[in-house]
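REQUEST ID: PR-0412
SUBMITTED BY: lab tech R.K.
PRIORITY: routine
TASK: structure prediction, single protein chain
INPUT:
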Amino acid sequence: MKKLTLTALASLLLLAGSAFASNQGDFQKAMKAAQEARKMAQSVDGEWRDIGKILKHAKKAAKKGDFKTATELARIAEFQGKTGYAQAMSQKGVGNPAYLYN
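STATUS: complete
OUTPUT:
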């Protein structure tokens, strides 16, 4: 139990440290990944509503020099792009429920 607690604590510290270490390079990588995920979602009509707004806010934060916030927002947009794609693919060919045809 002690070993598990220490491992979890060490993981949290590493994640927290990487969140504070965001710089322009981190933002650019995250933004590129987010834009690719968005295009992937668009290709199957699975883009979620707020991706564009989130990316816009990320660019504004980066312009102000707040790369930590900008990177976090870009990662959220990437998640939404990937999840939107997965959602659209899981619903592909499902059709309408039978009760609509009665």
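NOTES: The helical segments are 2-20, 24-42, 51-63, 67-91.
REVIEWED BY: pending
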